[in-house]
Amino acid sequence: MSNRADPVITLAQQLIERPSITPDDAGCQTLIADRLTQAGFVIEHLDFGPVSNLWATHGQGSPILVFAGHSDVVPPGPESRWTVPPFAGIVRGDWLFGRGAVDMKGALAAMVEAAVAWVTACPEHAGTLALLVTSDEEGEAVDGTSRVLSRLHEQGITVTGAIIGEPSSRARAGDALRIGRRGSLSGEIRIEGQSGHVGYVPAQANVVHRLIAFLNQCLSLDLPTGESIFPPLSFHVTSITSDCIGRNVIPAEACATFNLRYPPTLSNQKLERHIQTLLEAIPEPHELLWRRSAKPYLSSPGRLRACAREVLHIKLGHDPELRVDGGTSDGRFFSDQGSEVIELGLVSERLHAPDERVSIRDLQTLFEIYREIVERFLEYHPGVP
Ligand SMILES: [Zn+2]
Fold first, then answer.
1. 154, burial (CB in 10 Å: exposed 0-12, middle 13-18, buried 19+)
2. Cα of 103 to ligand 1 centre, how many Å?
3. Can you list the alpha helix ranges (DSSP code H) found in the chain?
4. Between the N and C ends of the chain, which has fewer C-beta atoms within 10 Å?
5. Catalytic (active-site) positions
């Protein structure tokens, strides 16, 4: 197959062949490091516990442009739901199949090859071109990008702009740019009640009903979020359980887990306060535990977004759509440190699904887009401070 000769496709296949389920990197970063070393990048492996991180740089000083991505993938699920083995990197027609093809080994391969192509063509470029790859994006995201950025911060290194390779496109590579993400907050509630026979206990004393009433109040939460590109607050129940011991027995305990997605005009503290107030109406003993949270972010427009929009306009013939939806991403860690952030990757259609696949044409387009953004951002930058 002629695609085998394309370095982006070849690297994407080699990455897919390594079953790097979070936080196991399975050798992906060594493969990437070898490729970047050949092109003159300086490599640092920053491993924390079971998490592997790669920091690779070419050039010196500001501006610092970073390609950021992750080598880990979510599990493939039952192989019977796939029509190809999930870790084989099989090309069929115009498609490359495999777990991570879209999220985000395809984009990672395009980033690496774009970086190599650029420094080979322009070895004396201004500033620094860097890659940050972690194996902990799909998991807790504690020992990955955030730890590496803290380490860099201690060394006085501040990233000017970051391109996150998360799947961001709608129908073809580059038709949308993400410039922010909603925050995420998860909670777990448990209410204790009185067990009893359904024929004798009044409905209002049923602890499951109490839980449902509380969840309904959460669903109706309508907090002002101000004028913004962000969708309004969302609340989802993700599980409801009880210690059910029979169809005619009222349970003694009811539990639920839930998740909120919120714009940057709200904060997790504010949301926690509002929900805590709703709990005051529950007379039975109860317990609410707050779980993982991720802060929202919205990146201000800057030079990086301008360069990306110019390149995408030329490639697509129109401006890319600016979006802020989807799950959380490591973009928040860069934004927290004052870096400009854009998220630009492949089409998100088969994300985390069986038969995850990416169009070969999109991979090649993304490679070109990345290379041209670097060229604009580094070659024509007004200068080193
Ligand atoms: Zn991802």
1. exposed
2. 5
3. 7-16, 28-38, 106-121, 145-154, 207-219, 268-279, 303-316, 331-336, 360-374
4. C
5. 72, 137
What is the rounded distance in angstroms from the CA atom of residue 288 to the CA atom of residue 272? 10
The domain defined by 2-181+296-379 folds into Aminopeptidase (3.40.630)
The alpha carbon of 383 and the centre of ligand 1 are apart by a number of angstroms equal to 33
pTM of the model: 0.90
Domain ranges of the chain: 2-181+296-379, 183-294
CATH topology of domain 183-294: Alpha-Beta Plaits (3.30.70)
Q: Which residues surround ligand 1, an ion (CB under 5 A)?
A: 103-104, 166
Reading the chain (385 residues) residue by residue, the pLDDT tens digits are 444 469 999 999 999 999 999 999 999 999 999 999 999 999 999 999 999 999 999 999 999 999 999 999 999 999 999 999 999 999 999 999 999 999 999 999 999 999 999 999 999 999 999 999 999 998 887 899 999 999 999 999 999 999 999 999 999 999 999 999 999 999 999 999 989 898 888 888 899 999 999 999 999 998 888 778 898 899 999 999 999 888 899 999 999 999 999 999 999 999 999 999 999 988 899 999 998 789 999 999 999 999 999 999 999 999 999 999 888 999 999 999 999 999 999 998 888 899 999 999 999 999 999 999 999 999 754 444 4
